[in-house]
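During the no-cost extension, the postdoctoral fellow (Dr. R.K.) reprocessed legacy sequence entries with the updated structure-token encoder. One reprocessed record is reproduced below for audit purposes.
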Amino acid sequence: QVQLVEFGGGLVQAGNSLTLSCVGSGRTFSGYTMTWFRQAPGKECIFVGGISRSGINTQYADSVKGRFTISRDNAKNTVYLLMNNLKPEDTAVYYCATPDSPYLGVTSYSADYQYWGQGTQVTVSS
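Re-encoded structure tokens follow.
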């Protein structure tokens, strides 16, 4: 059974940084793309970024490009989301997600990902 658990959310002031972690279990972590999505109150869940199985390739939403960095440590079954220069509009519940297929690369479509964590709240105050 695949499980994902996020850690690291909290309340931060605008301009500060925060790092989220997502730990996976239940299968070979290194064999699958990992992604981050977020959902603000009253809004749809949107793509933040993703990382390939090896960690060599990353993709980001335009809204976070240059501020957020995704990395992974396959030995620790963990993917990270480093968020710098946070803005109030980054306030959301952040989810990590991974697909059922080992052949799927990073996509921005939430429907492509079958396994999701429970989410962690990030609140950025102005």
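The chain has a mean pLDDT of 97. The first strand starts at residue 3 and ends at 7. The remaining legacy entries will be reprocessed before the final report is submitted.
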